[in-house]
């Protein structure tokens, strides 16, 4: 193995946590995320000659992962919206109220993100979770920046609506003026 290949393999290892997080967001469960991560690396390794020195390896790998994910959805015809499995590590003896509430909030947020349309979820994960700029996300997904902006805005609006408590929604739906009997 030449030095270039060794360097790329080291970069692969360094990018693994980010790619795994993205895969978990796309797949909504750890088993499918692991399979997606493995398929991504397998495809990248067999096509390593296609990556050009001087370009962003992370963007290339995210693009491969997105493509592999879309292809696997199309070929297997799975459309399940399963909730992320309860994989959050609760510390031994960590049953305090705050930890439990945080864990529940995280699970609710994961469910809300899983319920987003695929296009919105992918953009939200790349920009808000992975910290990519709009341009970087546009490059990864091979879309115009305007499309990225639009999908991200719709995803954020959907999440904000889903996170609004029912009591606040009910108050918003109440009329501002009410009819008073007998002039009172």
Q: Could you please describe the fold and organization of this structure?
A:
It is built from eight helices and no strands. It is mostly helical and 184 residues long. It folds into two domains: 1-77, Rna Polymerase Sigma Factor, Chain: A; 109-167, Winged helix-like DNA-binding domain superfamily/Winged helix DNA-binding domain (Arc Repressor Mutant, subunit A). Helix 1 (3-27) packs antiparallel against helix 2 (30-46) and helix 3 crosses helix 6. Mean pLDDT is 79; it is low at 77-91.
Which helices and strands occur, and which strands form pairs?
Layout: H1 3-27, H2 30-46, H3 57-76, H4 97-114, H5 118-129, H6 134-141, H7 145-163, H8 166-173
Helix pairs in contact: 1-2, 1-3, 1-5, 2-3, 3-6, 5-7, 6-7
Task: Offer a quick outline of the entry.
The protein has 184 residues and is mostly helical. The chain has helices spanning 3-27, 30-46, 57-76, 97-114, 118-129, 134-141, 145-163, 166-173. The chain folds into two domains: 1-77, RNA polymerase sigma factor, region 2, helix turn helix motif (Rna Polymerase Sigma Factor, Chain: A, Orthogonal Bundle), CATH 1.10.1740.10; 109-167, Winged helix-like DNA-binding domain superfamily/Winged helix DNA-binding domain (Arc Repressor Mutant, subunit A), CATH 1.10.10.10.
């Amino acid at each position: 193995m030449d030095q270039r290949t060794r360097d790329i393999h080291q970069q692969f290892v360094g990018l693994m946590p980010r790619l795994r997080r993205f895969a978990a967001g796309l797949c909504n469960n750890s088993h499918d995320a692991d399979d997606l991560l493995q398929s991504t690396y397998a495809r990248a390794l067999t096509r390593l000659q296609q990556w050009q020195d001087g370009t962003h390896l992370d963007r290339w790998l995210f693009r491969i992962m997105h493509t592999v994910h879309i292809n696997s959805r199309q070929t297997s015809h799975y459309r399940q919206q399963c909730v992320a499995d309860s994989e959050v590590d609760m510390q031994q003896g960590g049953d305090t109220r705050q930890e439990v509430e945080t864990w529940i909030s995280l699970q609710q947020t994961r469910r809300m993100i899983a319920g987003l349309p695929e296009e919105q979820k992918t953009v939200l994960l790349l920009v808000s979770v992975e910290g990519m700029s709009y341009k970087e996300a546009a490059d990864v997904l091979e879309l115009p920046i305007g499309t990225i902006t639009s999908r991200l805005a719709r995803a954020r609006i959907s999440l904000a609506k889903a996170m609004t408590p029912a009591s606040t929604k009910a108050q918003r739906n109440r009329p501002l003026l009410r009819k008073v009997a007998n002039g009172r």
